[in-house]
Specification:
By secondary structure, this protein is of the alpha+beta class. It contains 16 helices and 13 strands. The protein has one domain: Thrombin, subunit H (Beta Barrel). It is elongated. The two termini are 40 Å apart.
């Protein structure tokens, strides 16, 4: 017989102890377990966390990802096709004469600009001479750390946008000055173009340049923001370079990328869950750096490094045309969230955010965000021989948070200090150490006193001794000096308690340029391609310049009840009762009969 909880097996001769002694041993072990075992906090990684604690555990492992792209663009110089322009002029004169258009100067100019914008390639042709300029672009997204060695996961399109979309972005950035010069020349012509006319011409010029634009080789550098926020320093200025290990295809492909931070150690990590355990209707939590709030004007530098977390239900599980599963959720997100972790209620990463649905006019549809399940991420990690795992920093941090939210501040303090020793750049631990010390100084600590262990233990022993002593006395009186049991006939004992040792608080184990866009703040995707939402829920309370924690944080679920302890059975009694022993009074000879009136012999 075997058991994962252990059994007592007897294969040779056994010496039976009195029942009260066995009870003493079992009760003693039970007393120790009862006193030193505390409710586990997500010991198996599946216990639900309160929203505040989930955010606190998640933030350290979530990083702002910045991708910088540099290249050169080359465009031909423009030549006006005078014949085509004269033909247009003649046609407009006829229309004005026949009343098809107005005869006022502004009306004729409006008609001219509208015709030119319809087909700029008819009226402007490219010359052989070209103009070349150097252009730089930056895109932002979210990523998360999967092991202590510095491997991160983000969305592929954050660091490798679609080439056609990237070309458009280079055109917009690189041609801005060229188009401005063109508009200056138009205004210098003496024609009274209205502001609306100039806007229409600017778009026509851009369309023309993009057709003939040539983009040189693109150089990409990626950085992740690791470390502590420093007042007056934007987080984008403190990026740590990251190596691109592997990149998938932008959504609807396997929109996943793996990065590596050189020389990293003891980084805060996030645990990977199992998307098979996430049914429709589950609550999902989206964490990341939405550009609209991250780079909002008027925000302090400290606020810019604060991740945002939102939540919403998993509304559907779908598949792409290639058969890849996709989660649909109502958790709010927006450009900048791409590549960010999507968590279950236990704080496990069950997917990454990659896309959002859009209407026919290109506007984002609220409540229709798309998530690639974590199983797809695991496939890429396996292909690159990256093993996810909890870092020692995160293990200690989660233990400390568990104690902190239980108001066991004296228990939390050494764990927070351990985190700081392992990873001095931890973005939140210094603030928690300050808060913890303040709580201790204010007399708010509720850490159980170790003396309680010995008091409860002593009380349990005394109780067992008292009860067991009486039971043993009665047992001896009942059985007297019966014969010893036959060796080798004892049944096997039942299982011992499954948790014979003390248990402490345990922690969680150990941009989106949505599809079709590179994730640049403010960019609108073309119709049919999913952009991100611009709506965000407020971030939960955090330790860095955020609202105070709730006075009563959610308590963790307790351990499941321990299995019952089965007492060893007593050996069988003889089938025939033994005759009572002869009466023997002090001072009398053995075998002497009791005198008349003596009390009966004690069995």
């Amino acid at each position: 017989m075997t058991s994962n909880r252990g059994v007592i097996r007897q294969t040779h001769s056994m010496i039976w102890a009195p029942r009260w002694l066995t009870a003493l041993v079992v009760a003693l072990a039970s007393s120790v377990l009862m006193v030193v075992t505390t409710p586990a906090r997500a010991a198996d990684g599946e216990t639900e966390l309160g929203a505040t604690q989930l955010a606190a555990q998640t933030y350290p492992g979530v990083q702002l990802i910045q991708a910088d792209f540099t290249s050169t663009i080359s465009v031909p110089q423009a030549i006006i096709d005078e014949a085509a322009v004269n033909e247009l002029y003649t046609r407009l004169v006829v229309q004005a004469a026949t009343g098809a258009i107005g005869t006022a100067e502004s009306q004729i100019i409006d008609a001219f600009v509208a015709e030119l914008a319809k087909d700029p390639f008819r009226y402007v042709t490219p010359a052989d001479a070209r103009t070349t300029v150097e252009v730089g672009l930056s895109g932002f997204g979210t990523g998360f750390v999967v092991n202590a060695e510095g491997y991160l996961v983000t969305a592929a399109h954050v660091i490798a946008p679609d080439p056609d979309e990237l070309k458009v972005e280079f055109a917009r950035a690189g041609l801005r000055d060229l188009i401005a010069n063109d508009l200056d020349e138009v205004q210098a012509s003496g024609v009274a173009y209205s502001p609306a006319n100039l806007d229409t011409l600017a778009q026509a010029f851009q369309d023309w340049y993009v057709r003939y634009l040539e983009v040189g080789e693109v150089s990409t550098t990626v950085s992740a923001q690791i470390g502590v926020a420093t007042a007056g320093v934007d987080k984008t200025q403190r990026g740590q370079p990251a190596e691109i290990i592997k990149v998938g295809a932008p959504y609807p492909g396997k929109d996943v990328a793996v990065l590596k931070l050189d020389g990293a150690a003891h980084l805060p990590t996030l645990p990977l869950g199992d998307d098979a355990d996430v049914p429709e209707g589950s609550t999902l939590h989206v964490t990341g750096y939405p550009a609209a709030s991250t780079f909002s004007s008027g925000m302090s530098a400290d606020s810019q490094v604060q991740p945002t977390i939102t939540e919403g239900p998993l509304t559907a599980i779908k598949k792409t045309e290639t058969g890849m599963p996709v989660f649909q959720t109502q958790a709010p997100a927006s450009p900048g969230n791409s590549g960010g972790p999507v968590l279950d209620d236990a704080g496990n990463v069950v997917g990454i955010l990659v896309a959002s649905a859009v209407a026919d006019d290109g506007t984002a549809l609220e409540g229709q965000e798309f998530v690639i399940p974590i199983s797809v991420v695991r496939q890429m990690l396996n292909e690159t021989n990256v093993k996810p795992g909890e870092s020692a920093t995160t293990q200690a941090y989660n233990v400390a948070l568990g104690a902190y939210f239980d108001k066991y501040y004296k228990r939390a303090m050494p764990e927070f200090q351990r985190v700081q020793a392992l990873y001095p750049e931890h973005p939140y631990v210094a603030e928690y150490i300050t808060r913890t010390q303040q709580a201790i100084d204010a007399g708010k600590d509720e850490t159980p006193n170790s003396l309680m262990l010995w008091v409860a233990l002593a009380g349990g022993v005394l109780m067992v001794l008292a009860v067991g002593g009486v039971g043993g006395f009665l047992l001896l009186r009942k059985h007297g000096k019966g014969p010893a049991p036959v060796a080798g006939t004892a049944p096997q004992g039942g299982p011992w308690p499954g948790n014979p040792g003390p248990q402490g608080h345990q922690g969680i184990p150990g941009q989106q340029g949505y599809a079709g866009q590179p994730g640049f703040p403010g960019q609108q995707p073309p119709p049919g391609q999913p952009p991100q939402h611009a709506h965000q829920q407020p971030a939960p309370a955090g330790p860095m310049g955020q609202p105070a924690w709730p006075a009563q944080p959610q308590q963790p679920a307790s351990h499941p009840p321990q299995p019952p302890v089965t007492q060893p059975l007593q050996p069988p009694l003889p089938s025939e009762p033994l005759p009572p022993p002869p009466w023997h009074a002090p001072g009398s000879a053995p075998g002497q009969q009791p005198p008349p009136g003596s009390p009966p012999p004690v069995p």
